[in-house]
Design a protein that fits this description.
Helix content is 48%, strand content 8%. The protein is mainly alpha-helical.
């Protein structure tokens, strides 16, 4: 990510490439999507808000509501492995920080208190001016989102043989490498997200018959040491026909 992006029930650690120009058509489309929804993530900068979501039970509840629609504390309790009263506390915390809200209109009767998702997509940018508290909270949230994804992966692998053959064939992992510049990496990320976006389909009516949720996670980390990046930057800045060492010697009069 140009920072980090998460979508409930969708991708984690991916971003809609801030700094990507985009066409006027893309800008218009983005403006038509409510802020905080897939395709128009908001920037998450408040450490308290990050910590509010970082709790494992709240990640499970938030994701479940985003994928399943309006849900009560009793229904969420089973997903989070908590009592309904404990789940109600976590629901209120998520609501206080704007991740979910009450959905009275979907209540079957006056006793129910359904909750719906209000914020589904966000980015977190690790900038030079990010506060230490912001960096710690961002790291905590990302690590717990990653842990939640890993639990899904482990659960699948434990029961892989029970899945239909076509799902076993289609599922899996990819390990590869790309030799890119930072600009090219941003471009690559944007292209991957453009391909993925039409398949997020949080609304059931938008899905193909037989479609089921699949956890997607994209890692894009430097496979090199910091000093290698500095050397590559110096080589790129050297005058044509000179290595960075030769350029440095000439500038120094050696």
């Amino acid at each position: 990510m140009q920072g980090k992006e998460a979508e409930a029930g969708g991708q984690e650690d991916e971003a809609r490439a801030a700094g990507q120009g985009g066409s006027a058509e893309t800008g218009t489309l983005k403006e038509s999507v409510e802020p905080g929804m897939p395709g128009n993530p908001i920037k998450l900068t408040d450490p308290k808000m990050m910590r509010a979501l970082a709790h494992p039970a709240r990640i499970a509840i938030w994701t479940h509501i985003a994928m399943r629609g309006p849900t009560t504390a009793t229904e969420c309790a089973e997903v989070a492995g908590l009592s309904p009263s404990a789940c109600s506390y976590h629901l209120r915390t998520l609501a206080r920080y704007g991740f979910i809200e009450e959905d009275i209109a979907s209540a079957a009767d006056g006793r129910e208190r359904p909750w719906r998702a209000r914020l589904l997509a966000f980015t977190m940018e690790d900038r030079p001016d990010t506060t230490p508290a912001g960096r710690v909270a961002s790291r905590l949230l990302v690590e717990n989102l990653r842990e939640a994804a890993e639990e899904i992966r482990a659960r699948y692998l434990d029961r892989k043989s029970e899945y239909p053959a076509d799902w076993q064939a289609a599922s899996g992992e990819l390990f590869s490498v790309a030799h890119v510049t930072p600009e090219e990496l941003n471009e690559l990320r944007a292209k991957v997200l453009d391909i993925l976006e039409p398949y997020v389909r949080l609304e059931e009516a938008e899905r193909s018959p037989g479609a089921l949720p699949v956890r997607m996670m994209l890692d894009m980390f430097p496979w090199f040491r910091p000093e290698e990046a500095h050397r590559a930057s110096q080589r790129g800045a050297a005058p044509p026909g000179l290595t960075s060492d030769e350029g440095a010697r000439r500038e120094g009069g050696a």
